[in-house]
Amino acid sequence: MNGLSKQEKSWTMYDWANSAYSLIITTAVFPLYFKAVASDAGLTGPTSTAYWGYANSIATFIISILAPLLGTIADFKGFKKKFFAFFFGLGVVFTTILAVVPTDQWLFLLFCYVFTVIGFAGANIFYDAFLVDVTNDERMNRVSSRGFAIGYIGSTIPFVISVALILLAQNSTIPITVETASKAAFAITALWWGLFTIPLLKNVQQNYYVERVNNPVVYSFEKIFNTLKSIRSYKPIFLFLLAYFFYIDGVHTVITMSTAYGSDLGISSSNLLIILFVTQIVAAPFAILYGKLADIFKGKIMLFVGIGMYIIICSYAYFLETTLDFWILAMLVASSQGGIQALSRAYFAKLVPKESVNEFFGFYNIFYKFATILGPMLVGVTAQITGNTNSGVFSLIILFFIGGIILWKVPEKKRVDPSSGISIN
């Protein structure tokens, strides 16, 4: 693969831009900040956790309902970038607002957080769909993987700055409170996200589209209905989405449950943050490696490799006892989490009709969002029945086996003709 084109580089820079949000707002700093603010307001731990869950569920529900409709409308000429810019702007604005909300306004803080999630997730629908506009099928695996790789690296820079500010504030090394340091982290996230999105806004254009009609909303509803009615004609696409639903649920569960799992092993919060940081660094080159190997052995084969690695990870988790064991587990996760997500995005982009890519990435987003239900429930129920967290993580191999079996039935790189619904090479 030759060097990336200007459009490809500009597209991958959005992974660099929005990854700061994923790590700081979704995973690390903001959840802890909200818990502290809620506690100061008199909420108990279980109550604040419940509100946190409600907020995430509401945001997920809203964007999942809107995704197919917005995606179908965005397939019209000139709409994709406008929709991307709107949701990106929504996310950045409300992330900035998080930095100025008074600490006694915990409910308004959570309200603003919901809009950051909607902005982040909404922008990702159109960002993923832009992959077909910036590159060709032969380069998709590596371009998508490169995006994930630089995203992992990019997320660590504002993360390190933010954590350093908070730790220095905790130790009174700098004359600000931990609250102020946390708010500074939110502002840094918004600035990082906004600044590094400029190349995409400037250099990436919608090359595949359908011509506008008089009533785009009505047309879009009809198109979604016809797509669902003709689901058998789109069998390769929806078969892949079904496989994706299962195995990506397992991937997300391993990621989202890792902190709680580590805590159950007695690993301190500081060590968990260090492990999270190192995992991000290690994941970057492995994401690129997956992309390169996919060009040699095909994307579907490497997806099976990723699924196989996660089966090994879940099996190894059953025997975890020490901090060293957790380090090994984290590095195994780092070796495959970026690769399997990047190649899934590229594989799906090759399957869907390019003129309807936004509509289908709307469905992709639904499966992505709702693929966070079975895994945590499976871990929780198994852990409660057995009294062992290790057994809960081990139970996730069920999801990977089901996903792998369904993926086996998906044809390799066949694009669906939107006019006939027939798979074509």
TrEMBL record:
PANTHER family: AUTOPHAGY-RELATED PROTEIN 22
Subcellular location: Cell membrane
UniProt entry keywords in alphabetical sequence: Membrane, Transmembrane, Transmembrane helix, Transport
GO CC aspect terms: plasma membrane
Domain Major facilitator superfamily (MFS) profile, residue spans: 236-425
Protein known as: UMF1 family MFS transporter
Chain ranges passing through the membrane: 20-38, 50-71, 83-101, 107-127, 148-169, 181-201, 237-261, 267-289, 301-320, 326-348, 360-385, 391-410
Membrane topology of the entry: Multi-pass membrane protein
Top-rank lineage group of the source organism: Bacteria
Matches recorded under InterPro entries: Atg22-like (IPR024671), ATG22/LtaA_families (IPR050495), MFS_dom (IPR020846), MFS_trans_sf (IPR036259)
Single GO molecular function: transmembrane transporter activity
